Each structure stands twice: as C-alpha cells, then as structure tokens.
Protein 1
Amino acid sequence: MIPRDYQMRIARDGTWFHQSDPIRRHRLVKLFSTVLSRRDDGQYWLKTPAEQGIIEVEDAPFVVQAMRVENAGREDQTIHFITNLDHDLTLSVDTPLVMRPSPVTGEVTPYVEMPRGLSARLGRTVFYELVDHAVARSSTDDVAELGVVSDGVFFSLGQVSDDDIPTEMATDSSAAIRK
C-alpha cells in the first residue's frame, strides 16, 4: 500500500487541519482519530483498510481539557481525563501519566499515554487542577517525589525539596500504593 499525502496536521491546541484549513466538523475529526496511530519511528499515520498516509502532529494529537476525580483523597481514588475529542481516559497502568519534554516548547510537560502509540497533552488548567490532588512521598535525603494516585498507582509529577512541600500536603507512605 503506497502512503498518501493527506495534507493534514494537528496543531498543538488539538485543532485538525486539512490543506491549511481547520476541519470544523467535530464528528469527522472524531472519525479520523479512530484510524490514527503512531509508529515506532514517531510518525503519525491515518490508516484504513483501503489507504494510509502520514499526517503532521505538532505536539500530541489530543489535549486533555477536563478531569474528574472519584473518591478524592481515598486509597481507591481514580482520576479521569476528558480530551478535546471526548476520550474518557482513566489514569492507570494502561493509560499512564508521563512527564516529558514537549516537541514544541522543550519544557517538561504532562501527557497521558494512550493505545496505538498516541498521547494526550494535559492543558495548563487541567494540570493545575491535577496538582491540587498531588501527594508527596519521601524519595531521598531532603527530596520528595510529588505525584498523584489513581487506580492504586502513584504517578510522578517530579521531585521537590522537602522544604518546598506545603504543610497541608502529607507525605504518602501507604503500602497499598505501588509504583
């Protein structure tokens, strides 16, 4: 199958374009997203049984625009993320949170990994809301790991000095939480 040039790209804000024009039909974009995948070489492809082609993705193909927390602060806390295309992602081992440099800004940025090699970048507002649910746990001398717990798993947001941890943010030492 010879790859086609679809002349499509996904902007950092999650907007899909065809020939430099935004695709305004939300349902059409959602349909395209069902055949989107990322290969090991980092290229994004739209692939149907009849044809396939490479598309450009500036950062991540999806943007997390909202979140909700079930059983907040409890051992069975679960965090859900909603993307710009209505994907409902449960933060878990299968859809983990990762911190990595953005290909656009170079800044360490939070992403949720998805099936087919895809990911969703957390929007700034959602990230701030997520940090409100963060806990600190001891890591090394004078340093703590800051992160969130969802589906029984601790997801790191990064390390902070013990001196920088707010007093209301208790250090988590629960044996039920596994890394």
Note: The mean pLDDT is 89.
Protein 2
Amino acid sequence: MTDLAKLDTEGVERVLAVVAHPDDMEYGAAIARRIREVRPQMAISLTWELDVGFGINHVDHRACGMALMDAIRDADNPWIFQDLGLKRWKVERALFCA
C-alpha cells in the first residue's frame, strides 16, 4: 500500500501540493492561496531546522518548511494577498518533522 493510499484509510480526505521553486517570490503566495481555498485544519511539512538530531537537514527540506510556516501566517493575515479575493483562514495545527 502506498503512503497516499494509507492516508485514505486513516481518514485523510485529500493531500494537496504546491509545485514551485522555493526561491520564487510567488511561492509563498501560491501556498497561502491554496490554504485559503482549501481551508485545512492541519498542515504538515518538513522542518526548517538545520540540525534535526541525526544530521544536517537538506536545504530544500528547510525551504519547504519555512515557506509553509510563512504561508500559514500569511493566509490568516487579512491585510496581505487581498487581490486573491479569498477570505483569510487560520490553520489550527501544523506539524513540522525531519
């Protein structure tokens, strides 16, 4: 059973991904847009931390974690991304893992 199929049996309704390069300025806006569209209760990503206890975390993993953390904050800020025409959304729980 694939990891995604396993999620379905555990009650996860859908898994979404934003595909973009983390250095792109539009990356954070794209993630915040998806958060506002989908309105998830929880978000999961890799951690932004450098030292993850068993070695050094890879740069792209850190960039993903930081981008999601920023987008979670931004999706709940009514003053930014007003041009999206979407109501702000607060993600209640976020999990960042190594």
Note: Strands lie at 42-46, 93-97.
